Every structure is written in structure tokens, then in C-alpha cells.
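User: Predict the complex with 2-phosphoglycolic acid.
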Amino acid sequence: MKKIQIGSQTAHVGEGEEICRVLADEVEALLKARAAEGKMVVLGLATGSTPLPFYEELIRRHREEGLSFANVRSFNLDEYEGLGREHERSYWAEMWKNLFDHVDVKPENVSVPPSISEDADVASAEYEAAIAEAGGIDWQLLGIGGEGHIGFNEKGSPVESRTRRVTLARKTIVDAGPSFGGEENVPTHAITMGVGTILEARRVVLMARGASKREVVRRAMSGEVGPEVPASFLQNHGNVGWFLDHDAAEF
Ligand code: PGA
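Assistant: Here is the predicted structure with 2-phosphoglycolic acid placed in the model:
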């Protein structure tokens, strides 16, 4: 994997498989070090297509090498409003299908923001409280949206934003359309961790794959820091890793 400088930031550029291996190495080292001390690791996890091969690599290590997730406490970034957990497109369902069902994480240690809640403000505050109670997030995985969102922090999300109910951007709905069998089926709202919540994670890793992310990655890494491109706030995080495949990195 090679390192390239983009603005003030360093990108790690390689083949998709290599990126997944390197990131799985990070997680494995953390899990083993904490397990040796009898302690938990708090992971912040993401959905979308980008992390899927990374989750496959974690599952492979669990199956073939015995890597244990018994000391994992996890918090997902976001969830669509109104679908309910059982809906196959809910992020709850996606996480079980793509990772949790295949490793030995304890079901009670897994959190995803609620898809249905009586009061989204209360549910959001409870989510923040649960993260704090777990001791904060050790290792946060992120993808990046076509307009620079992280989680569902769309354009305009302030740096101090916390977990809250948000309206999805038009582009987000259009991008999700095919997997919902049409844009009209995509939820219009979600609950997401805030930019401020994400920035408090002790380690943040952003993965981007494909030419469609090239321009937004460049803006996030070297453009002005601000709510216009929420991922740009990561420039000021002291321990961020930008992991790009060759297509995403050819500026
Ligand atoms: P993707 O989504 O991984 O499906 O490209 C990333 C995101 O919207 O954060």
C-alpha cells in the first residue's frame, strides 16, 4: 500500500483487498490487546457497500483463525426511520446479515439507532448516553457519501452535531433508490450519530472505493473544512486514516 499526500492529509492507497487486510489487522490487534486485559473494545460500524469486503475479512479471520468478537461492544452510525428492524434494508438487518450473524459478538453488545421510536430526540439522547457509558468509541469505521456525508450527516451538518433525527439529502435518496426498488420507497429520514459524536472516536478510518468517490474524497481531504462537505471535518481529527482504492485516489 502506498501513501500519498492530499492537502494536509495522508491517504493510504491500495487494492481493495489489501485495504481490508490492513484494517482487519488494526481491529485484530485492538481486540487481542484488550482481550488480554479482560477489557471490551468499542467499535463504531458503518453500513453501505464499501465495508462489505472488510466485514468478509473479519468473518474469515473468525472462522479460520479463531479471532473472537466476544469482547466487542458496537455502535452503528445510523439507521433509516420507519422501516423497523425486520425490514431487509434496515441497517439492523444488514449488519446481522453481513457481520454479526457470522461472528461470536454477544447480541446484547450490539447497538444500532432505532428505526422506530416514540420520540427520536429521546432515542438519540439515549444512544449518546450508551456510547458514553461504554467509554466512548475506540475505532470508528466510515464510508463517504457522494456529497461528503459521514453517517447520515448531510451537507450542512455542524461540527458539534450529536446523534439526532435528520432529513436525507436528495442525492442520498437517489443513490439508495436501486436497493429499495425505487426512490419512492427510500425513507426520507434517519437517526444518525452526529459529526461531533464521530470526531470523539479515538481512531477514525474512512474507506472509499471507486471513481464515483474521487472528487468528493479530494474535497474532503484537501478542501475547506466545514459543513459543506461534512467529511472534511475529519481533517482536524488527530488520528484519522483515509483508505482509498486506486480508482478513488486518481486525482
Ligand atoms: P456506499 O455508501 O458505501 O454504499 O458507497 C457510503 C455512504 O453513503 O456513506
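The chain has a mean pLDDT of 97.
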